[in-house]
Design a protein that fits this description.
4 strands, alpha/beta, 4-stranded parallel sheet, binds 4-nitrophenyl phosphate
Length: 154
């Protein structure tokens, strides 16, 4: 199974989603069966490391995001990934606009898909430190639900 997490810049929310989920899969012994990646709808941070504030907040909870690098979503992603999970409604809209008509990917809003409130992961980029903690809180909750979904599919 292949899952792609998508936000705007690919330096805060979607790398966090990827790192949290990777740890959950490793703990569940499922890392070999599910490939994860993340990408941004914008190209601004292509090739760049994860935002230092995001990296630090993640590190404090035991997630290492130091090896991840930013990249932009490409049309081939809709053929490579079965599940593409957007962090907010703008990301979802942008993904839907570029998704080829007969691509197999299922594109959805991550938190809403798993019955969580709020439905969107708020963009922490221009805010304070608490925003990065909230991103982690939401994405840890979502990862547990995604793991249950994956177990049901494998
Ligand atoms: P992300 O956060 O979409 O969670 O990676 C952002 C990163 C960068 C910018 C905006 C949001 N930016 O404007 O550069």
């Amino acid at each position: 199974m292949n899952i792609l997490f998508v936000c705007l810049g690919n330096i805060c929310r979607s790398p966090t989603a990827e790192g949290v989920m990777r740890q959950r899969l490793e703990q569940a012994g499922l890392a070999a069966q599910v490939a994860l990646d993340s990408a941004g709808t914008a190209a601004w941070h292509q090739g760049k490391p994860v935002d230092p504030r995001t990296r630090l907040a993640a590190q404090r909870r035991g997630y290492d995001l130091s090896l991840l690098r930013g990249r932009q979503v490409v049309v081939e992603d809709f053929h490579r990934f079965e599940l593409i999970l957007a962090m907010d409604a703008n990301n979802l809209r942008d993904l839907q606009a570029m998704c080829p008509a007969h691509a197999p990917a299922e594109v959805d809003l991550y938190l809403r898909r798993y019955g969580l409130q709020p439905h969107e992961v708020p963009d922490p980029y221009y805010g304070g430190e608490e925003g990065f903690e909230q991103v982690l809180d939401l994405l840890e909750e979502a990862a547990d639900r995604l793991l249950a979904d994956i177990r049901g599919r494998l």
